[in-house]
Structures are given as structure tokens and as C-alpha cells.
Amino acid sequence: MTRSRLSRRSLLAATGASSLLLPLLHQDHSFGAEAAFPLRIIFCVTGNGTTEEAFWPTGTDGNLTLGGITSPLEAHKSKLIFTRGVDMRVWSEDNPFGGNGDAHHNWGAVLTATKLATGDAPHDPGGPGLALASSESIDIHLGKELDKQAVAAGGMGYPFPTLSVRARGGTGSGRNTLSWTGDRAAFSAEGDPRKLFDALFAGYMGTQPDPAAVRLRKKRQSVLDYVGTALERQTKLLGREDRQKVQLHLDAVRSIEKQLQGGAVTASCTPPTLEAGVNFNLDDNLPKLVGAQHDLITAALSCGLTRVATFAFADAENYDIYFPFLGIAQQGIEFPTRHHHDISHRPGDLNVDKIKVENWIISQFSGLLDKLSAVPEGGGTLMDNTIVLWMNSLNSGFSHTVLKLPMIIAAGKNTPLRTGGRLIELNKEAHNKMLAALGTAVGVPMESWGDARFPGQTTLT
Amino acid sequence: MSAPGAPSTVPTANPDGKAPAEATVGPSPIRRLGQLELTQTVRALLPGLPAGFDAGKDLPPDNAIALSFAVPGTVSDVEVNRFMDLGEAAVAALGDHLPGAQPCSGDETACARAFVESFGKRAFRRPVNPLEVDDLLALYGKLRTDPDLQYDLKGALGVLVEAILQSPGFLYRWERGLQPPLGDGKLVKYDNYEVASRLSYFLWSSMPDDALLAAADAGQLAKPDEVAAQAQRLLADPRADLVLSDFASQWLELTPLPSLVKDAGAFPSFTPELRLAMQSETLAFTLDVLRGPAPTFTSLLTANYTIVQPALASYYGVAADASGRADLSGTGRLGLLTQASVMSVKGNSYRTSPVKRGKFVQNRLLCSSVPPPPANVVPDLPAPDPSKSVREQMAEHRTNPSCAACHNSMDALGFAFEHFDGAGKFRDQDGTQAIDASGSVSLDGADVTFKDAADLAKLLAASPEAQRCFTRQWLRYALDRFEQDADGAAAQYLADDFVASGLNTRQLLVDLTRTLPFSHRAPAPGEVLTP
Fold first, then answer.
1. Pairing with A231, which of A214, B81, B165, B334 sits 20 to 30 Å away (CA)?
2. Eight-class DSSP state of B178
3. pLDDT at residue B120 tops 50
4. Which of B258-274 are b and which e, b meaning 16 or more Cβ less than 10 Å from the residue's Cβ?
5. Domains of chain A by start residue, with CATH
6. Do A123 and B262 touch (CB under 8 A)?
């Protein structure tokens, strides 16, 4: 439990509220009638490829037999669409550094669907080599657009237009970052469940406004207001590129200020309980870490704090991800240790550990669908109103290729997608088109996404 | 990426500190404090913090960069929250030990103003602009008088510390405050306060001390000789040990060592304790050389001694004296490159990795980048064949033409280290086969042969190409950026100067602070300068 620690999420948006058992209920987020429940979307991304023979289902639409890796999805099969034949063409056709091992630097292209920023190639001695993205990612775009729509409809908008979350991995480069607010502008994912809980929910419980919580929140707002002013003064003095960089800092300060003003929380919302005393950094606790982050994403979606979430399992390389809880020993084969990268570096038929690990990763995806399906919403569940894209940034961690990307869509019955346990065969479909189709499905119509060379949408309806 | 204009022919500023008219220098983007810098700065700024307080613990780590040194990322929501947490945690940990807070008699607002001006100057590493004082006092007023806040004087000063720790003046390396940068001909000249911070962050990874700030106050950091004299002082201070170690650690790519795991069957003695002993050896040896009478590149690569803990001494089969110093004669080891730390990090779990070792030498000792494998390569790794040596198993790298272009030179360099197994222990045989550590390498435009790693280390130490590369690595470390064409004259000056000094690293670090890229930068597009 982290509730005892008062934090930046407001207790209540108004200080004079009378005694309430539930937090303030904003009418615009009180999804009273089923028709009023908005659609949500989650992008789940993992890296290092799969073992294709064990990933793709066989059989016919409505009657699929899942693979050894995807078998944990059996209970959710009717919600699924497998799309086979989607390539990351923005990468495979002309990525800035050739291919092969460097596809590990492709996370800046996954949700942007554009080429990386020039001069940022890891092997370019003239550039910083961080493999930074060159444009906004679709999760950030959808978050902004849905927020705008909510405000235009007279609502308050969402305190977290996009919620970017990770289990392991890091921040700040194209090796680990999926969400980008623009050219070379990483939007870091929160990897610490306790800090994520604080950001989303701390100070939320209680029967009436706690003066200490109100004071803390107001102090933070006052401090950030000062910091924002200082940043504004600073940016005016800088050259264009530096100004853009510091502007990102200023935008982030304003975004936290907005969160502190108290967002909207719905009547049906229940903050999760984080298990006390767990060291989430331990390899043995990876399942608990993923579970906690999925709980928090589910709650944030259910509480109306956001409609768009991104979940990175780790990063594009996974050098420090271990699976002792699956009985996989520490020593590596090609690399010093048997981390996820090492496990992924062997050809398929030799590699039972790879199948075991990928099966477990899919079981976590299935666990997320369980959680979404367990939250009542109107007469149905949160899952009914949610689209989840699960994808791997490589098809094979062995050849480092980005063709026929492992990709699964799970969608609820109130979404426009036609599900039913389907396998759609595509031929070199640019992943841009898939993202455009999903963006449109969640309520932000778009004809294309990302690189203009790959216009159009994949048909999923 | 290079700055427009012809390469510079001028390596340093004029003796008066002005840039010659024909001088060029590369652009230098604004940078925020990295994880190590922030940790060190918070500690120096707030000496009242308890010893166990770790400011960097929850900060996002900097991003490693191939061929160079780590840089901090941009700031988004997560980082803003982390800075807020850091400010609050630091002030909570300070308790009654607010820096420089005097008992206030009289007007409390005047006391707050004095606090803002004195603490702010240290935190911002330059005087606080009147407008900034007003902003902070406005915050102070709100903290005191807002009905929901009602902080007392001490509480309000604590919140001001939090606010300052989150402000751009503290977090960014920009010591001009609200004044536009200083124009100097076609370039920007770093002012005295900027130079003070450039010196302290380069040589201490921390903020300037009082003496350095006083020199900036007095305008005594404008000329190359003045700057070099301060550099001499900072380098002589034990606080510079941190930077010498940090450089070695990043240059030799040892960051993964503390958590490195090996196949227990192949390398049973590679325990966590031994890993730490390996790391300690490299850092102790580096400091011993660079602090000693011959702080040369030659010593770093070819010294016939090391400094080891007892566990590592027996691993090496050497006898160490009470201070840990051990003679390496007869061990096949020489200098840094054959140390177990380097050999282990650039080794696989169950065997050596000539590719990683060769690539490391190319990247970090010769400053040449190795392109990634072509896109159509499927690295079909055969299972280890105990009847073959590693060298034999890697034969395809050299026979297959698409591999050979890069692997010929990379693997040849790597094979030099075959006497050291994947955990850095000396061996005569690879399986059943005698080790062949000989090879040839193209150095300074000529093919030269070596018989083993010690031989290669001597060749590298004597190679102008490797010596120049070492000066480039330091230049990148000092400038927090890659050198550009426009910095060419300074880079050449440093390489020549390094040779002239007998490859003296301390001299290199001091002379680096005389160069134009240390005192000046190219204006950024869109920037308005103070004439």
C-alpha cells in the first residue's frame, strides 16, 4: 500500500467539498449510460522477436488453433485478430544504418512509423547515436486528440492524455522509448509501480479533504508554477534546437501542473492495491511488476484518467531481463548471461527456452485482458470498450528482422473492429496502415499514419 | 555533422581570451546535469545531507553512446516528477541543516532575500538575476501568506530549496542566467561563470567550489593561462579522482562488470567478489598511473605492474606487496588492456570473444567505428565445438567475403587476447590446442605484426593513431559532445601537444582547457548574442 504517502494527485479538485465516500465525481466522466463509455486503446510492445512456428495460429477464422507461444490466449480467443504479414517497412526499406543488429534501435519507429531522426544513428560518430525518433508517436497523438475532443464536448479532458508505462527497460533513447512527443522528444515511460500509483492515485482516498494533502498539492503547484516561469525565461535566450529541448521540459511541467489540478475520477473507479514490501527490481518479481503495472493501467483507464496507454515490456534489447521464475538458468550461451537477449539469439528449433519465455510474455498479455474484462462498465466490462494492440518490434531476435511482425489485436464488442478469433493474411503491409486503422477505430479518424510513403489503412472491420 | 565554414587553423584563444578572427569551433548544445553530476552537485551544494542520502538513486540513468560518453536524456513528465521527488527528499533529509540559513532577526522577507541570493548563487553557479530573485520571493510570499499554505520562515526557505533544485538554473549547464550569451567575433565566448562550471564539471563532475566561484567573480577565468592554472588546481585535488575513474570506466566500457555473470561450469571462480576485485584493480591502477610520476599513455597500456586485492593476485598468480602492488613479469599481462576486468566484459559466458575484444580496440583505442553486419546476415551460430579453438571456429568470418571486410581486422585484434579466457584468466591452451595470439593490424597506414596481447599493447602505445584517439576520447569526455570538423585545429593541437609532453595525461587534461572548444562555441541558429 502506498496510500499513506500523500502525493501529487489531488485529494479532491475542490477544497471545500463536503464529506464524500468516493472522490469527486465529475459529471463529464461519469459514464452513466453504456453508450457514453468511451473507447480506449492500449499499445503493448515487446522486443527481440518470437519463434514464428510457435506463434501463429492455424485453422480458420472463428476456429483457430493457437500456437505454443500464444496458447495462453485461449480464453480470449473470440476477441482476437491475428494479422500476419505486417512489416515495419519504414525500417526495412531504408533504415539509416543498414539492418540486422541495428533493428534493436527501432523503438523510435514502432509507434511513430517514421524514420529515425537523422544524425542520430548509433554508428554515426558525428551524432549522439541515441537512435531518437523523428516525429510524434501515435499514442501521444491519440491522447492529445481524444483530450481535445473531450474538452470540445464541454468536459475537463484527461489528466494523463497518454499514459506511458514500462515494466523493465530504461528511458530516453530509441532503444527503450516508444512514446515521443515530437522530433527527438522522448516521453519517458514510468517503470516504478509505486511512483505510478502516486502519480495516478495518491491522496485519492479519504472521506474528506485532508488539509495536509491540500497543502502539499498547493505547494507543489506553487513550486511548479515558479519552475515554469523560470523555464519560460530561459527558453527565450536559447537557439532554436536548445529552445525546443527546454520547451519539452516546460511542457512536462505544465502537464504535471494539470495533473495536480485534479482530474476526473469516475464513480466506478477503484484504485488498485499495490502489494507492500515487494522489491520490484528483483528478477523473481518480474511477474509481480508486470501485474502491478497492468493493474495501474487498467485502473487509470477505468477511472477516466486516460484513454490511451502504452506498455513496454522492457526495451528493444532486453539485456537485463531474466526468467529465474521459469527455471531458466542465469548463464548465457552467446552472451555472458541468459537474459532475454541471449535467449532470443538462437535459431528456433534449438530454442525451447525462447518458446517458454515468449509463452510467458503472452500470458502476461492475457493477464491484462483478464484484468480489463474484470472491470464492470455499464452492463458489460471495460474490455468491451477497449482495443489492445500487442506487438513485437522484431519478428526474429535471431535474424533481427522486422518482417511479418508478431501482431495481435484484442478488441471488445463495442469497438468497430470485427473480431471473432481471426487470422488476417497480409502481404508486406506497412505497419503504418495498421496504426492508422487502430487510431481511426478508437475515434480519431485518420487516412494514414507516419511516413507518407505508406498511406492508407489496414481493413480490420 | 559539422559546423559550416572552413576547418579551424587556430587551436586556442588569444592570450587575452579573445578568439582570433579566423577561428572556428563546433556548436555545443545545452545540456542538463547527468546522473553523476547531479548526485555530486546535490552533495556539494547541501553539505548538511546525511551520508547515506543518494540523490541519483531514482533519477533516470544517462544514455550510453557508442564511441563516446553517456549523456542525459530530454525531460518529460517522468523526469519532472523525479526532480520534484529529489527536491522534497533532499529538503526532508536536511532537516535543520538548511544551507547557510542564519537566524533571522528583523525583517523576515529581507532574510529570505539574503538566503535566495546566497544559496541561489551557489545553486545556479553564478549570481542570481534580480528578476529571478523576484520570482523566488513571490513564491516565498505565497508560501507564507496563502491560507492553505502558511509556511513559517524555515519551512518556506526549505520549499525555496526544493524549487531551486527543480529550476533550469540548477539543472541545466547554462551559467549566463537571464543574459544572452557573450558574442566574440563569429563565436560565443563562455563567460567567467560558465568557464568555472566547465572546469568543475569536467574535472570533478560537480559544481565549482568557493575558490572557483570567487575567481569567476573577480573575472579571472577569461584568459587561457588563468583557466589552465585553475585546471591544474582542480586536477591536483582528490575530487578529480572521481573523474579519472569515471573516464576509465566509460572508456574501457566496464559499466556492466559489477553485474556480469558467467557460466559457472566454464568459469567457476568468477564470483561477485572477484568481479569487484577486477573493477577495483582497473580503477586503482588507473589512479596510480595518472596520479604518479609518469601519468602517460604508455604507462596505462604497458606498465609492468598492477594493483590488486589478494583474491585477484592469486587469480593472476602474482605476489602483491602490502599496498597491493604486484609485478607482472612472466604473466603475459601488461597495462590496462589485459586486465581481467576488460577481458571479462569483452568475453562471452563460456568462452572468449575475439570479435568483442577486437571491436573494442577499434572503437576505443583507434577511434574507428565498425559498421553493423549487413542486413542479410543470419548469424547461424554453430554449437561450440570443443575440438576446435575459438580461432578455428571463427574461420568463416575471414573466408566469407561479406564478413571478412570487417572481421579480418576486428578478429585479428581480438585474437591477440586469446591467452586470456572469457573471465580474464591466463591460459596456454584453448581446449586441446595451443594458443596462437599472433596477428597483424594496420596502424598508422602500415601493416604491423604482433605475437600476443602484450606485444599489441606496446604497438598501440607507440602508435600516433592510438595516441591521437586517446586525446579524442578525452576531448569528447570534456566537451560532452563529439568533436566536429570546426574543432579540427584544437584536436590536432591536443594530439601534437600530447606527443610533445611525452604522452602526459595530466598535461593533456590541463591543456585541453586552453583550447578553443573549451572556451568558445559556435552560436546556435536563432540565438541572440550580447555584443
1. A214
2. T
3. yes
4. eebbbbeebbeebeeeb
5. 1-25+206-263 (no CATH), 31-204+265-441 (3.40.720.10)
6. no
pLDDT of residue B114: 95
Tell me the longest C-alpha to C-alpha distance in chain A. 65
Cell of A371: 484484468
Percent of the residues in chain A that have a pLDDT greater than 90, as a whole number: 63
Phi, psi torsion values for A31, nearest 5 degrees: -80, 80
Distance CA B269, CA B396 (A): 32
Tell me how crowded residue A228 is: count the other CB atoms within 10 A of its CB.
Answer: 19
CA dihedral B9, B14, B19, B20 (to 10 degrees): -50
- φ, ψ for residue B406 (rounded to 5)? -100, -40
Q: Which residues of B181-211 are buried (b: 16+ CB within 10 A; e: fewer)?
A: bbebeebbbbbbbbbbbbbbbbbbbbbbbee
Read off the C-alpha cell for B260. Answer: 556480469
Please report, as a single letter, which amino acid is at residue B207: M
pLDDT digits (tens, 9 = 90+) for B376-433: 555 555 556 667 887 887 777 777 777 777 777 788 899 999 999 999 999 998 888 8
Q: How far apart are CA B411 and CA B393, in angstroms?
A: 12
> Taking a C-beta distance cutoff of 8 angstroms, is the pair B37, B202 a contact?
no
* Whole-structure pTM value: 0.90
Q: What is the pLDDT of residues B172-198, one digit of tens each?
A: 999 999 999 999 999 999 999 999 999
How far apart (Å, rounded) are the C-alpha atoms in residues A162 and A308?
Answer: 5
* B182-184 vs B187-189, strand pairing mode: antiparallel
Please give the angle made by the CA atoms of A205, A208 and A213, to the nearest 5 degrees.
65
How many of the other CB atoms lie within 10 Å of CB of B513?
A: 24
Name the DSSP letter for residue A45.
E
Kindly report, residue by residue over B216-252, the tens digit of the pLDDT: 999 999 999 999 999 999 999 999 999 999 999 999 9
Distance from CA of A437 to the nearest CA of B (A): 28
Residues 255-314 of B with CB under 8 A from A: 259-266
Nearest to A309 by CA among A139, A437, A79: A139
A238–B30 C-beta distance less than 8 A: yes
| DSSP per-residue letters across A208-270 | S--HHHHHHHHHHHHHHHHHHHHHHHHHTTS-HHHHHHHHHHHHHHHHHHHHHT---B-TT--
- CA angle in degrees (0–180, nearest 5) for A397-A401-A402: 110
Write down the pLDDT at residue B374.
60
Nearest to B139 among A211, A226, A240 (CB): A226
Residues of B within 8 A of A101 (CB-CB) are 372-373
Compute the distance between CA of residue A395 and CA of residue A56 in angstroms, rounded to an integer. 11
First to last CA, chain B: 27
Tell me the one-letter amino acid at B150: Q
**Interface pTM, i.e. ipTM:** 0.93
- Look at residue A386 and give its three-state secondary structure: strand
Would you say the C-alpha torsion A73, A77, A79, A83 has a positive or negative sign? positive
Q: Inform me whether the C-beta atom of residue A336 falls under 8 Å from chain B C-beta atoms.
A: yes
**CA nearest neighbour of B316 among B406, B419, B408, B404:** B419
Is the Cβ pair A242, B60 closer than 8 Å? no
pLDDT in tens, A263-277: 445 445 678 889 999
Residues 6 or more apart whose Cβ sits within 8 Å of residue B94: B46, B48, B49, B158, B161
- CA–CA dist A359, A187 (Å, integer): 29
